[in-house]
Amino acid sequence: MIHSGLQLENNPDYDFAFEVVQRLQQAGYTAYWAGGCVRDFLLGKIPKDYDVATSALPDQVRELFGRKMTLAVGAAFGVVIVRSGRREIADVEVATFRTDLDYIDGRRPSQVVFSTPAEDAQRRDLTFNGLFYDPMADEIHDFVGGQADLENRIVRAIGTPADRFEEDKLRLLRTVRFAAHLDYEIAPETWDAICKNADKLKVVSAERIAQELRRMFVDRHRVQGLHLLKESGLLDATPFGAISGGIKEHRPEWQHALETARLLSSPGFPLVLAVIERALLYAPDESDELNRHRFAELGRELRLSNQEIDHASWLVLHHQRLSQPQVRPLSELKRLLVSPCAEDFLHWERAAAVASGSSLDDVEFLERFLENTPPEVLDPPPLLGGHDLIAAGIPAGPGMKLLLDQIRDAQLNLEITTREEGLELLGRLKPNV
Ligand code: ATP
Ligand code: MG
Questions:
Q1: 357 and 262 in one domain?
Q2: Is residue 129 within 6 Å of ligand 1 at its C-beta?
Q3: Is the CB of 145 under 6 A from ligand 1?
Q4: For tag attachment on the chain, is the N or C end more exposed, with fewer CB atoms within 10 Å?
Q5: Are residues 141 and 198 in the same domain?
Q6: Total domain count for the chain?
Q7: Ligand 1 centre and the CA of 171: distance in Å?
Q8: Given pLDDT bands bounded at 50, 70 and 90, which one contains residue 249?
Q9: Same domain assignment for residues 170 and 211
Q10: Measured in angstroms, how far is the CA atom of residue 151 from the centroid of ligand 2?
Protein backbone atom coordinates (compact mmCIF):
# COMPACT_ATOMS: atom_id res chain seq x y z
CA MET A 1 0.00 0.00 0.00
CA ILE A 2 1.39 3.41 -0.86
CA HIS A 3 -0.28 4.76 2.23
CA SER A 4 0.75 2.19 4.78
CA GLY A 5 1.44 3.86 8.08
CA LEU A 6 -1.01 6.70 7.49
CA GLN A 7 -4.09 7.03 9.66
CA LEU A 8 -6.87 6.52 7.14
CA GLU A 9 -9.50 4.72 9.17
CA ASN A 10 -12.59 6.87 9.38
CA ASN A 11 -11.27 9.19 6.71
CA PRO A 12 -14.38 9.95 4.66
CA ASP A 13 -12.47 11.80 1.91
CA TYR A 14 -10.35 8.74 1.34
CA ASP A 15 -13.34 6.39 1.44
CA PHE A 16 -15.25 8.49 -1.05
CA ALA A 17 -12.30 8.82 -3.46
CA PHE A 18 -11.85 5.04 -3.21
CA GLU A 19 -15.52 4.46 -3.95
CA VAL A 20 -15.39 6.67 -7.07
CA VAL A 21 -12.58 4.54 -8.52
CA GLN A 22 -14.34 1.34 -7.48
CA ARG A 23 -17.57 2.26 -9.21
CA LEU A 24 -15.80 3.28 -12.41
CA GLN A 25 -13.81 0.04 -12.47
CA GLN A 26 -16.87 -2.07 -11.72
CA ALA A 27 -18.57 -0.43 -14.69
CA GLY A 28 -15.69 -1.64 -16.85
CA TYR A 29 -13.59 1.54 -17.14
CA THR A 30 -9.98 2.09 -16.26
CA ALA A 31 -9.75 4.45 -13.30
CA TYR A 32 -6.84 5.59 -11.15
CA TRP A 33 -6.01 8.23 -8.62
CA ALA A 34 -3.80 10.73 -10.39
CA GLY A 35 -1.33 13.52 -9.80
CA GLY A 36 -1.01 15.38 -6.50
CA CYS A 37 -2.78 12.83 -4.33
CA VAL A 38 -0.46 10.00 -5.42
CA ARG A 39 2.55 12.21 -4.83
CA ASP A 40 1.29 13.12 -1.39
CA PHE A 41 0.80 9.49 -0.38
CA LEU A 42 4.32 8.62 -1.53
CA LEU A 43 5.58 11.51 0.58
CA GLY A 44 3.73 10.12 3.57
CA LYS A 45 1.09 12.85 3.59
CA ILE A 46 -2.66 12.54 3.52
CA PRO A 47 -3.87 14.39 0.40
CA LYS A 48 -6.23 17.31 0.82
CA ASP A 49 -8.00 16.46 -2.40
CA TYR A 50 -8.20 13.56 -4.82
CA ASP A 51 -8.21 13.55 -8.59
CA VAL A 52 -9.31 10.53 -10.58
CA ALA A 53 -8.23 9.85 -14.16
CA THR A 54 -10.34 7.47 -16.18
CA SER A 55 -11.06 6.00 -19.59
CA ALA A 56 -14.76 6.87 -19.15
CA LEU A 57 -15.89 9.85 -21.22
CA PRO A 58 -17.49 12.79 -19.40
CA ASP A 59 -21.02 11.70 -20.38
CA GLN A 60 -20.31 8.19 -19.20
CA VAL A 61 -19.08 9.51 -15.87
CA ARG A 62 -22.24 11.57 -15.50
CA GLU A 63 -24.41 8.64 -16.42
CA LEU A 64 -22.70 6.36 -13.93
CA PHE A 65 -22.92 8.74 -10.96
CA GLY A 66 -26.14 10.45 -11.99
CA ARG A 67 -26.67 13.97 -13.31
CA LYS A 68 -27.60 15.28 -9.89
CA MET A 69 -24.41 14.05 -8.28
CA THR A 70 -22.11 15.41 -10.99
CA LEU A 71 -21.09 18.81 -12.30
CA ALA A 72 -19.82 19.17 -15.84
CA VAL A 73 -17.39 21.96 -14.93
CA GLY A 74 -14.98 21.36 -17.76
CA ALA A 75 -16.68 18.72 -19.85
CA ALA A 76 -14.93 20.03 -22.97
CA PHE A 77 -11.63 19.19 -21.26
CA GLY A 78 -13.00 15.92 -19.94
CA VAL A 79 -13.44 17.10 -16.36
CA VAL A 80 -16.47 16.21 -14.27
CA ILE A 81 -16.87 16.82 -10.55
CA VAL A 82 -18.42 13.91 -8.69
CA ARG A 83 -20.13 15.28 -5.64
CA SER A 84 -19.97 13.50 -2.35
CA GLY A 85 -23.36 14.87 -1.38
CA ARG A 86 -22.07 15.66 2.09
CA ARG A 87 -20.59 18.95 3.05
CA GLU A 88 -17.80 17.47 5.15
CA ILE A 89 -16.61 15.15 2.37
CA ALA A 90 -14.57 16.61 -0.47
CA ASP A 91 -15.87 16.23 -4.02
CA VAL A 92 -13.66 14.32 -6.43
CA GLU A 93 -12.54 15.61 -9.80
CA VAL A 94 -12.83 12.91 -12.45
CA ALA A 95 -10.99 13.61 -15.70
CA THR A 96 -10.88 11.51 -18.84
CA PHE A 97 -7.35 10.51 -19.94
CA ARG A 98 -6.40 13.17 -22.41
CA THR A 99 -3.76 14.97 -24.44
CA ASP A 100 -3.77 18.76 -24.40
CA LEU A 101 -3.39 20.53 -27.74
CA ASP A 102 -2.77 24.05 -29.00
CA TYR A 103 -1.95 26.05 -25.94
CA ILE A 104 -3.34 29.56 -26.08
CA ASP A 105 -2.70 32.68 -23.94
CA GLY A 106 0.33 31.01 -22.42
CA ARG A 107 -1.75 29.07 -19.95
CA ARG A 108 -4.43 26.76 -21.34
CA PRO A 109 -4.96 24.28 -24.14
CA SER A 110 -7.63 25.33 -26.61
CA GLN A 111 -8.41 21.72 -27.44
CA VAL A 112 -7.99 18.28 -25.98
CA VAL A 113 -8.26 14.78 -27.38
CA PHE A 114 -9.12 11.84 -25.18
CA SER A 115 -6.27 9.37 -25.01
CA THR A 116 -4.45 6.81 -22.87
CA PRO A 117 -2.99 6.87 -19.34
CA ALA A 118 0.55 7.03 -20.77
CA GLU A 119 -0.36 10.06 -22.86
CA ASP A 120 -2.26 11.67 -20.02
CA ALA A 121 0.87 11.43 -17.87
CA GLN A 122 2.76 13.36 -20.55
CA ARG A 123 0.51 16.43 -20.28
CA ARG A 124 1.21 16.85 -16.56
CA ASP A 125 3.86 19.23 -15.33
CA LEU A 126 6.43 17.46 -13.14
CA THR A 127 7.44 13.83 -13.02
CA PHE A 128 6.24 13.31 -9.45
CA ASN A 129 2.91 14.91 -10.41
CA GLY A 130 2.51 12.49 -13.30
CA LEU A 131 1.89 9.30 -11.31
CA PHE A 132 -1.22 7.12 -11.25
CA TYR A 133 -2.25 4.74 -8.52
CA ASP A 134 -4.87 2.05 -8.70
CA PRO A 135 -6.19 1.74 -5.14
CA MET A 136 -8.13 -1.46 -5.95
CA ALA A 137 -5.12 -3.35 -7.28
CA ASP A 138 -2.64 -1.43 -5.11
CA GLU A 139 -0.51 -0.64 -8.15
CA ILE A 140 1.41 2.43 -9.21
CA HIS A 141 1.56 3.30 -12.91
CA ASP A 142 4.60 5.42 -13.54
CA PHE A 143 5.14 6.42 -17.17
CA VAL A 144 7.45 9.33 -16.46
CA GLY A 145 10.01 8.22 -13.86
CA GLY A 146 8.25 10.10 -11.09
CA GLN A 147 9.03 7.57 -8.38
CA ALA A 148 12.76 7.67 -9.02
CA ASP A 149 12.72 11.46 -8.92
CA LEU A 150 10.83 11.42 -5.63
CA GLU A 151 13.39 9.02 -4.19
CA ASN A 152 16.27 11.14 -5.42
CA ARG A 153 14.57 14.36 -4.37
CA ILE A 154 14.56 15.86 -7.84
CA VAL A 155 12.05 18.21 -9.45
CA ARG A 156 11.95 17.55 -13.16
CA ALA A 157 9.61 18.72 -15.91
CA ILE A 158 8.02 15.96 -17.93
CA GLY A 159 9.25 15.95 -21.53
CA THR A 160 11.29 18.84 -22.94
CA PRO A 161 11.29 21.49 -20.22
CA ALA A 162 11.46 24.53 -22.49
CA ASP A 163 8.45 23.31 -24.47
CA ARG A 164 6.46 22.58 -21.34
CA PHE A 165 7.11 26.05 -19.91
CA GLU A 166 6.31 27.58 -23.28
CA GLU A 167 2.90 25.86 -23.26
CA ASP A 168 1.97 27.00 -19.79
CA LYS A 169 4.00 29.67 -18.06
CA LEU A 170 2.46 29.06 -14.67
CA ARG A 171 4.54 25.88 -14.54
CA LEU A 172 7.61 28.07 -14.06
CA LEU A 173 6.31 29.11 -10.66
CA ARG A 174 4.83 25.73 -9.73
CA THR A 175 8.21 24.11 -10.33
CA VAL A 176 9.99 26.53 -8.04
CA ARG A 177 7.25 26.23 -5.43
CA PHE A 178 7.55 22.44 -5.31
CA ALA A 179 11.35 22.56 -5.22
CA ALA A 180 11.25 24.91 -2.25
CA HIS A 181 8.40 23.24 -0.42
CA LEU A 182 9.93 19.78 -0.70
CA ASP A 183 13.50 21.05 -0.40
CA TYR A 184 14.44 19.18 -3.59
CA GLU A 185 16.98 19.95 -6.30
CA ILE A 186 15.69 21.14 -9.66
CA ALA A 187 17.10 18.99 -12.51
CA PRO A 188 19.69 21.03 -14.49
CA GLU A 189 17.82 21.02 -17.79
CA THR A 190 14.61 22.05 -16.03
CA TRP A 191 16.41 24.83 -14.17
CA ASP A 192 18.03 26.15 -17.37
CA ALA A 193 14.66 26.28 -19.05
CA ILE A 194 13.19 28.19 -16.09
CA CYS A 195 15.98 30.75 -16.19
CA LYS A 196 15.73 31.18 -19.97
CA ASN A 197 11.96 31.55 -19.92
CA ALA A 198 11.51 33.42 -16.63
CA ASP A 199 10.48 36.62 -18.34
CA LYS A 200 7.49 34.87 -19.92
CA LEU A 201 5.84 34.56 -16.54
CA LYS A 202 4.53 38.07 -17.21
CA VAL A 203 1.71 36.70 -19.37
CA VAL A 204 0.24 34.84 -16.39
CA SER A 205 -2.56 36.64 -14.58
CA ALA A 206 -1.61 38.50 -11.42
CA GLU A 207 -4.11 36.47 -9.39
CA ARG A 208 -2.47 33.18 -10.26
CA ILE A 209 1.00 34.58 -9.62
CA ALA A 210 -0.22 35.92 -6.28
CA GLN A 211 -1.70 32.56 -5.30
CA GLU A 212 1.63 30.86 -5.89
CA LEU A 213 3.64 33.56 -4.10
CA ARG A 214 1.26 33.43 -1.18
CA ARG A 215 1.87 29.71 -0.76
CA MET A 216 5.62 30.11 -1.11
CA PHE A 217 5.88 32.99 1.35
CA VAL A 218 4.15 31.19 4.21
CA ASP A 219 5.88 27.87 3.56
CA ARG A 220 8.44 26.65 6.06
CA HIS A 221 11.00 26.73 3.24
CA ARG A 222 10.16 30.26 2.15
CA VAL A 223 13.83 31.19 1.95
CA GLN A 224 14.58 28.51 -0.63
CA GLY A 225 11.56 29.76 -2.57
CA LEU A 226 12.70 33.37 -2.46
CA HIS A 227 16.23 32.42 -3.37
CA LEU A 228 15.08 30.38 -6.39
CA LEU A 229 12.68 33.12 -7.46
CA LYS A 230 15.45 35.68 -7.43
CA GLU A 231 18.17 33.52 -8.99
CA SER A 232 15.97 32.32 -11.84
CA GLY A 233 14.80 35.81 -12.72
CA LEU A 234 11.20 34.89 -11.95
CA LEU A 235 10.90 37.49 -9.20
CA ASP A 236 11.74 40.17 -11.72
CA ALA A 237 8.85 38.97 -13.87
CA THR A 238 6.36 39.38 -11.00
CA PRO A 239 4.89 42.74 -9.95
CA PHE A 240 7.79 43.00 -7.46
CA GLY A 241 10.15 43.43 -10.40
CA ALA A 242 7.90 45.80 -12.30
CA ILE A 243 7.26 48.11 -9.35
CA SER A 244 10.78 48.14 -7.95
CA GLY A 245 12.07 49.01 -11.42
CA GLY A 246 14.05 45.76 -11.66
CA ILE A 247 15.55 43.90 -8.78
CA LYS A 248 19.12 45.02 -8.30
CA GLU A 249 21.82 42.45 -8.00
CA HIS A 250 23.18 41.71 -4.56
CA ARG A 251 21.33 44.40 -2.69
CA PRO A 252 22.53 43.94 0.89
CA GLU A 253 18.93 44.45 1.97
CA TRP A 254 17.98 41.33 0.07
CA GLN A 255 20.44 39.14 1.94
CA HIS A 256 19.23 40.57 5.23
CA ALA A 257 15.61 40.00 4.22
CA LEU A 258 16.35 36.33 3.49
CA GLU A 259 18.08 35.89 6.83
CA THR A 260 15.15 37.54 8.56
CA ALA A 261 12.53 35.56 6.64
CA ARG A 262 14.33 32.36 7.62
CA LEU A 263 13.91 33.21 11.30
CA LEU A 264 10.17 33.87 11.22
CA SER A 265 8.13 31.04 12.69
CA SER A 266 4.80 30.33 10.97
CA PRO A 267 4.35 33.93 9.82
CA GLY A 268 1.21 35.10 8.06
CA PHE A 269 1.44 36.28 4.47
CA PRO A 270 1.44 40.06 5.19
CA LEU A 271 4.48 39.78 7.46
CA VAL A 272 6.61 37.98 4.88
CA LEU A 273 5.32 40.36 2.24
CA ALA A 274 6.41 43.28 4.40
CA VAL A 275 9.93 41.87 4.80
CA ILE A 276 10.23 41.56 1.02
CA GLU A 277 8.70 44.98 0.39
CA ARG A 278 11.18 46.51 2.77
CA ALA A 279 14.08 44.95 0.89
CA LEU A 280 12.89 45.61 -2.63
CA LEU A 281 10.53 48.56 -2.66
CA TYR A 282 11.16 50.70 0.39
CA ALA A 283 12.89 54.00 -0.29
CA PRO A 284 14.09 55.44 3.05
CA ASP A 285 14.66 58.86 1.53
CA GLU A 286 11.11 59.21 0.32
CA SER A 287 8.05 60.13 2.37
CA ASP A 288 5.93 57.50 4.06
CA GLU A 289 3.14 58.51 1.76
CA LEU A 290 5.12 57.78 -1.38
CA ASN A 291 6.30 54.49 0.04
CA ARG A 292 2.78 53.57 1.05
CA HIS A 293 1.65 54.42 -2.44
CA ARG A 294 4.17 51.99 -3.91
CA PHE A 295 3.15 49.17 -1.54
CA ALA A 296 -0.49 49.77 -2.41
CA GLU A 297 0.32 49.61 -6.11
CA LEU A 298 2.02 46.25 -5.60
CA GLY A 299 -0.84 45.01 -3.46
CA ARG A 300 -3.45 46.00 -6.01
CA GLU A 301 -1.40 44.41 -8.76
CA LEU A 302 -1.32 41.17 -6.74
CA ARG A 303 -5.05 41.48 -5.97
CA LEU A 304 -4.47 41.52 -2.22
CA SER A 305 -7.20 42.71 0.11
CA ASN A 306 -7.00 46.28 1.42
CA GLN A 307 -6.50 44.86 4.86
CA GLU A 308 -3.44 42.89 3.76
CA ILE A 309 -2.03 45.89 1.92
CA ASP A 310 -2.49 48.15 4.96
CA HIS A 311 -1.12 45.55 7.34
CA ALA A 312 2.08 45.08 5.32
CA SER A 313 2.52 48.85 4.79
CA TRP A 314 2.11 49.53 8.48
CA LEU A 315 4.78 46.97 9.27
CA VAL A 316 7.29 48.30 6.75
CA LEU A 317 6.80 51.88 7.92
CA HIS A 318 7.15 51.02 11.61
CA HIS A 319 10.01 48.56 11.37
CA GLN A 320 13.03 49.63 13.42
CA ARG A 321 11.62 53.11 13.92
CA LEU A 322 11.42 52.93 17.67
CA SER A 323 14.93 52.73 18.98
CA GLN A 324 15.59 52.88 22.70
CA PRO A 325 12.00 52.30 23.77
CA GLN A 326 13.16 52.37 27.40
CA VAL A 327 13.40 56.17 27.28
CA ARG A 328 10.33 56.86 25.17
CA PRO A 329 7.11 58.32 26.55
CA LEU A 330 4.46 55.74 27.44
CA SER A 331 2.12 57.29 24.90
CA GLU A 332 4.47 56.42 22.06
CA LEU A 333 4.83 52.80 23.18
CA LYS A 334 1.12 52.37 23.70
CA ARG A 335 0.12 53.92 20.38
CA LEU A 336 2.47 51.49 18.64
CA LEU A 337 1.61 48.36 20.57
CA VAL A 338 -2.12 48.85 20.44
CA SER A 339 -2.03 48.26 16.70
CA PRO A 340 -3.49 44.97 15.45
CA CYS A 341 -0.13 44.56 13.70
CA ALA A 342 1.88 44.77 16.93
CA GLU A 343 2.48 41.07 17.26
CA ASP A 344 3.88 40.86 13.73
CA PHE A 345 5.88 44.00 14.40
CA LEU A 346 7.61 42.39 17.39
CA HIS A 347 8.08 39.11 15.55
CA TRP A 348 9.90 40.98 12.79
CA GLU A 349 11.96 43.16 15.14
CA ARG A 350 13.22 40.05 16.90
CA ALA A 351 14.01 38.18 13.67
CA ALA A 352 15.77 41.21 12.17
CA ALA A 353 17.85 41.72 15.31
CA VAL A 354 18.91 38.07 15.36
CA ALA A 355 19.62 38.16 11.60
CA SER A 356 21.99 41.09 11.97
CA GLY A 357 23.45 39.90 15.25
CA SER A 358 22.37 43.01 17.15
CA SER A 359 21.08 43.34 20.69
CA LEU A 360 17.65 42.01 21.61
CA ASP A 361 17.27 44.48 24.50
CA ASP A 362 14.87 46.80 22.69
CA VAL A 363 12.57 44.14 21.35
CA GLU A 364 12.56 42.29 24.65
CA PHE A 365 11.67 45.47 26.48
CA LEU A 366 8.70 45.97 24.11
CA GLU A 367 7.62 42.33 24.42
CA ARG A 368 7.63 42.61 28.20
CA PHE A 369 5.81 45.92 28.08
CA LEU A 370 3.06 44.42 25.95
CA GLU A 371 2.84 41.34 28.15
CA ASN A 372 2.65 43.32 31.38
CA THR A 373 0.28 46.06 30.26
CA PRO A 374 -3.40 45.17 30.60
CA PRO A 375 -5.61 46.16 27.64
CA GLU A 376 -7.44 48.84 29.62
CA VAL A 377 -4.11 50.53 30.35
CA LEU A 378 -2.76 50.06 26.85
CA ASP A 379 -5.89 51.41 25.21
CA PRO A 380 -8.21 53.06 27.75
CA PRO A 381 -11.46 54.67 26.58
CA PRO A 382 -10.65 58.32 25.66
CA LEU A 383 -11.39 60.87 28.38
CA LEU A 384 -12.77 63.40 25.89
CA GLY A 385 -14.30 63.15 22.44
CA GLY A 386 -14.99 65.52 19.54
CA HIS A 387 -18.37 66.50 21.00
CA ASP A 388 -16.64 67.76 24.19
CA LEU A 389 -14.43 70.02 22.12
CA ILE A 390 -17.34 71.28 20.05
CA ALA A 391 -19.15 72.07 23.32
CA ALA A 392 -16.05 74.03 24.34
CA GLY A 393 -16.33 76.07 21.14
CA ILE A 394 -13.63 74.36 19.08
CA PRO A 395 -14.59 73.79 15.45
CA ALA A 396 -14.04 70.42 13.82
CA GLY A 397 -10.83 70.28 11.79
CA PRO A 398 -7.10 69.72 12.10
CA GLY A 399 -6.91 71.96 15.17
CA MET A 400 -9.41 69.78 16.98
CA LYS A 401 -7.52 66.65 16.03
CA LEU A 402 -4.31 68.14 17.41
CA LEU A 403 -5.98 68.92 20.73
CA LEU A 404 -7.54 65.48 21.00
CA ASP A 405 -4.14 63.92 20.31
CA GLN A 406 -2.50 65.99 23.03
CA ILE A 407 -5.19 65.03 25.54
CA ARG A 408 -4.90 61.40 24.52
CA ASP A 409 -1.12 61.50 24.96
CA ALA A 410 -1.50 62.98 28.44
CA GLN A 411 -3.93 60.17 29.29
CA LEU A 412 -1.64 57.45 27.91
CA ASN A 413 1.27 59.00 29.81
CA LEU A 414 -0.86 58.71 32.98
CA GLU A 415 -0.63 62.48 33.52
CA ILE A 416 -4.42 62.69 33.64
CA THR A 417 -6.89 59.96 34.49
CA THR A 418 -10.36 61.56 34.76
CA ARG A 419 -12.70 63.45 32.51
CA GLU A 420 -12.43 66.50 34.76
CA GLU A 421 -8.66 66.51 34.36
CA GLY A 422 -9.20 66.17 30.63
CA LEU A 423 -11.45 69.23 30.54
CA GLU A 424 -9.00 71.15 32.67
CA LEU A 425 -6.15 70.31 30.30
CA LEU A 426 -8.35 71.34 27.38
CA GLY A 427 -8.89 74.69 29.07
CA ARG A 428 -5.13 75.17 29.34
CA LEU A 429 -4.37 74.07 25.76
CA LYS A 430 -7.24 75.91 24.10
CA PRO A 431 -5.72 79.38 23.98
CA ASN A 432 -2.82 77.98 21.95
CA VAL A 433 -4.97 76.71 19.09
P1 ATP B 1 -1.33 21.27 -4.88
O2 ATP B 1 -2.77 20.82 -4.86
O3 ATP B 1 -0.58 21.04 -3.65
O4 ATP B 1 -1.17 22.65 -5.46
P5 ATP B 1 -1.20 19.55 -7.10
O6 ATP B 1 -0.04 19.02 -7.90
O7 ATP B 1 -2.16 18.56 -6.58
O8 ATP B 1 -0.58 20.38 -5.95
P9 ATP B 1 -3.39 20.65 -8.54
O10 ATP B 1 -3.60 22.03 -9.06
O11 ATP B 1 -4.32 20.08 -7.54
O12 ATP B 1 -1.92 20.64 -7.98
O13 ATP B 1 -3.32 19.71 -9.82
C14 ATP B 1 -3.48 18.32 -9.81
C15 ATP B 1 -2.59 17.69 -10.87
O16 ATP B 1 -2.87 18.25 -12.15
C17 ATP B 1 -1.11 17.91 -10.69
O18 ATP B 1 -0.55 17.00 -9.78
C19 ATP B 1 -0.59 17.74 -12.08
O20 ATP B 1 -0.52 16.37 -12.44
C21 ATP B 1 -1.67 18.40 -12.90
N22 ATP B 1 -1.41 19.82 -13.10
C23 ATP B 1 -1.80 20.86 -12.31
N24 ATP B 1 -1.42 22.04 -12.81
C25 ATP B 1 -0.76 21.76 -13.94
C26 ATP B 1 -0.13 22.55 -14.95
N27 ATP B 1 -0.10 23.88 -14.85
N28 ATP B 1 0.43 21.92 -15.99
C29 ATP B 1 0.39 20.58 -16.11
N30 ATP B 1 -0.18 19.78 -15.22
C31 ATP B 1 -0.76 20.35 -14.15
MG1 MG C 1 -4.04 19.05 -5.62
A1: yes
A2: yes
A3: no
A4: N
A5: no
A6: 4
A7: 9
A8: low
A9: yes
A10: 20
